Amino acid sequence: MLKKITIIGGLDKDGHTESIQRLEIFPGQVLAVAGPTGSGKTQLIADIEQYREGDSPTGRRVLIEGDLSTGSSHHLVAEVSQKMNFIIDTTVEAFLYRHAKVRAIKNPETVIGTVLAVANQLAGEPVSLDDNLTTLSGGQARALMVGDVALISRAPVVLVDEIENAGIDRLSAMAILSAHGKIVLVVTHDPTLMLMAGRRVIMKNGGMHKLYRNTPLENTMMEKLAVMERDMSRLRETLRSGRQIIDNHSKKETKDAWQAFFSTARSISAGLSVN
C-alpha cells in the first residue's frame, strides 16, 4: 500500500532553485495545484505522473514510499481530465466487468452497481449499464471514470485536470476519490476546489512557489461557497431540464437562490484581504 509520495524540488524556468524543496502528500489527501497559465502546473503533474528521478527539465524527483507489490508502479497514477471520452465500442456494463476482472475484484457485479451509482450521483444525466461507451456525453464519461478510478482502479494517485469544466458535480467527485484513500492532485482555477482541497501549491515561473494550508477564514469561505454551489446547482437543473420560472413557487425559489448567492458573494468579498 502506498504510504506517501514526496516531491523533491528542482529548478524553475530561469534555473533558480524552487522555493519549495520538499512536498509530501498522503493517501486521502487532496492537493490543489494553482497558478496562472504558463506557470508550470502541467509540468508538475507530468513529473508526478512519470515519477521522475531528476531527469525532467525541472530536475524534480518523485519519491514513492510504501509497498506497491499488489500492482505495478507503471499503474501508480490514474487521470481524470476535462477532455475525456471513450472510443471503445462496448457497453458500460461490459467495460466495467472487464476492468473488474482484470483487477481481480471479488463480486464484480456488486462493485459495478456501486460504480454506476457514483456516476449517476455526479452526472447531470443518468448512465445505464446498457449504454454504449461511445454514446456517453463528456460529463457522463467523466462521471463514470471517477467511479471506476475510485472503486476498481488500483492506482493510488489520481490526477484531476480542470474538472470544473467537466460537467459533473466536482465537489462530490473530489470527496469520493479522497474517501477511497486516493492521493488526489487537482489542477484548478476554481476557488471552491482550491479551498476544498485544504492545501494548495502555487506555481510561478515553472517552479513550486508557495504552499498554503487553509486559514480559518478560508474554511468559512469554503463552506459559504459550497452553499452557493448547491443553490446555483438547483437553479441550473431547473433551467436545463426545460422548466420555466413562471409560477409563484418557482419565482420565490429563484429569488431565494439569487438572494443567497449575492449575500454569500458579498460576505466573502468583505472578508478578503491582500496578504
Outline the structure in words.
By secondary structure, the protein is an alpha/beta fold. It is 42% helix and 19% strand. The chain has 8 helices and 9 strands. It has a 6-stranded mixed β-sheet, with helices on both faces. It has a 3-stranded antiparallel β-sheet with strand order 2-1-4, with no helix packed on it. A hairpin with a 2-residue loop joins strand 8 (198-204) and strand 9. The longest helix has 25 residues, at 216-240.
Question: Which SSEs are present, and which pair or pack?
Answer:
Elements: E1 2-8, E2 22-25, E3 30-34, H1 41-49, E4 61-66, E5 77-81, H2 92-102, H3 108-122, H4 138-151, E6 157-161, H5 170-179, E7 183-187, H6 191-197, E8 198-204, E9 207-213, H7 216-240, H8 248-271
Parallel strand pairs: 3-7, 3-8, 5-6, 6-7
Antiparallel strand pairs: 1-2, 1-4, 8-9
Helix pairs in contact: 2-3, 3-4, 4-5, 6-7, 7-8
Shape: globular
Strand proportion: 15-25%
- Provide mean pLDDT, rounded: 84
Proportion of residues in helical segments = 40-55%
Q: Rg from C-alpha positions?
A: 20 Å
Q: N-to-C terminal Cα separation, in Å? A: 39 Å
Order of strands in the sheet with most strands: 5-6-7-3-8-9
